[in-house]
Amino acid sequence: MANLSKTRTVFAFTSPRTIEKIIPEIYVLVNSFSGHDWDTETQIAFFHELYKSEFYEGDKMPENVALAARDRITRAPKALGFVDLKPHIKLTEVGEKLLSQIRTHDVIAKQLFKFQLPSPYHKIAPDRGFNVRPYLELLRLTKELGSLSKTEIAIFFVQTTHFNKFDSVVVAIKKFREAAKANKGNRKVFIEERFTDEILKIYAKEIEANNIKTRESGEASLAKFIKTKRSNHVDYADAFIRYLRATQLVTFDKKTFRMIVAPSRITEVDYILKNVERSATDYRSEEDFKKYLFSPSSLLLLTDDRKYLESELTKLSVKFDPSATIDFLKDLLETTEKKMISVAIHETEVSLKNYKEYDDVINIFDKIKKKEVPDPPLYLEWNIWRALVMMNYAKEVKGNFSIDLDGVPLNTALGNIPDIEIEYEGFKVIVEVTMSSGNKQYEMEGEPVARHFGKIQHGSTVPVYCLFVAPRISEGALAHFFNLNRFNTKAYGGKTRIVPMSLDQFIAFITIAKNSRFNHPGILKTYLDLMITNNQSVDDEVIWFQQINDSIPAWVN
């Protein structure tokens, strides 16, 4: 049971950052440890299995392995009802639905809207006055205000500890927007001051009692306390957005990047806000709570209504057997929506050709660098795909990210495949993208990038190359790729051909293609071959990376 004795705000699941990442981790747990006690021994064994998996990110075993295992499982997987850990490890009925990966967004939506504070899993002192379903109220707030920013969620929404505070939060955000619009000074300073004011109000009792020592540093200064709380609130806001986004009920405005109700899902959202109980239920026992949490039918969405499904399919001119089961109709609607998304992707590809969207692509890169987009890793992956489609002359440029019905990027590529795969005449290019930097870049990307390269090369009859793009290329990652390119590694299909570029270098690379009227894939292959040849002959990775940088202005020539 989670100890929330010090909780003053609602919280989100910050690990993993993307909820879909719990799917393979739950599979490892139940495939190897169903029926086991969830004790320290099992936790350690589970994490070792996880560490060996191809989707695990990182190359270092954590110091406290059991704690790391609990962090993976007792947060989102347990709290959202996908696994039961007591008396023994067991996959629940909704967990089976999740692992089937059929209508995943509906499965996630149901469990997020069941999540409540307090609950038998999350005891909170009665004097804190919690009575809320946070994800439900966040959806309601998005609908009520038309849009929400991460800053507004971090400062104000997290204070919605009771559903009856909803109206006061709406008023506070509206006043904040008016004040921000009237502010003539530095916007960043204005937001920080407003953020600080709210933190001082939320944690007034702790501050008055001088109970402000932060767990991470042990420092007991007010400035450190405020900074830590601000960081926590921002992390919660980011996680709230990511998890609610997985329901596909919300999306991002294409111009402002603020969270909005998905235009394609407005009817579904209205149904949820009208029919899902706002109050947290007071369960007599943990077993009663589990019955509710683990059941796929204890909370219904509009897509569980047969008449709605038939109406939607009819609108889309999809024929169906009137006697078909509800599950068949759901599958048919999902298949139809996937086809609609494929059409939208094709239309995007057509619009990108001949650099018609060049200015917008460059503008998005600029916002990514400034972190002015809601999910920088996702938008970086999506925008690099756009740039490469724009470059043209490939047989196919396949982005392994996903987009929603409204054409907005939804999820990054899964962990066991390249971010982008490009097929040219006579060769292939995979592209790996990351926002990570420093040692973390090497730890998270070093092995997976090489593994993805090897997997594609082993299955290819033509040479494979890899572009690795990040805002900055770390020393560790650069050295790693430099050496992998020089030595035969059987697991990777021999010598790798990995060419790293910073984001600025990649932007220059695309711009040169545009200005020099790149029109033949053979030119690209010649360039990549030259970079790999240089790799074999220079003394070290620093010289090689400088050569890459110096070569970009004339790479098409």
Characterise the protein shown here.
The protein is of the alpha/beta class and 557 residues long. The chain folds into 3 domains: 1-113 and 282-299, no CATH class; 131-279; 357-554, Restriction Endonuclease. It is 53% helix and 8% strand. The protein contains 23 helices and 13 strands. It has helices spanning 22-33, 40-52, 65-73, 76-79, 93-100, 104-114, 134-145, 150-155, 166-182, 187-202, 204-208, 222-245, 266-275, 286-294, 306-315, 326-352, 358-369, 376-391, 438-458, 475-484, 503-515, 521-537, 541-551; strands at residues 2-3, 83-84, 90-91, 122-123, 250-252, 259-261, 396-399, 402-403, 409-411, 420-424, 427-433, 464-470, 498-502. The strands form 5 sheets. A 5-stranded mixed beta sheet has the order 7-10-11-12-13, with helices on both faces. It has a two-stranded parallel ribbon with strand order 1-4. A hairpin with a 5-residue loop joins strand 2 and strand 3 (90-91). Helix 2 crosses helix 3 (65-73), helix 15 (306-315) runs parallel beside helix 16 (326-352) and helix 20 (475-484) crosses helix 23 (541-551). The longest helix has 27 residues, at 326-352. The chain starts with a strand and ends in a 6-residue tail after the last helix.
CATH architecture term of the largest domain = 3-Layer(aba) Sandwich
CATH-defined fold name of the largest domain = Restriction Endonuclease
Largest sheet: 5 strands, mixed
Domain count: the total is 3
Strand order of the largest sheet: 7-10-11-12-13
Q: Structural class of the secondary structure composition?
A: alpha/beta
Mean pLDDT reading: 93
In percent, how much strand structure appears in the residues? 5-15%
Number of helices: 23
How many strand units?
A: 13
Q: Low-confidence spans: pLDDT under 50, at least 5 residues?
A: none
Oligomer: single chain
Termini gap: 64 Å
Tertiary shape:
globular
- Helical fraction: 40-55%
Supply the CATH class of the largest domain. Answer: Alpha Beta
C-alpha Rg (nearest Å): 25 Å
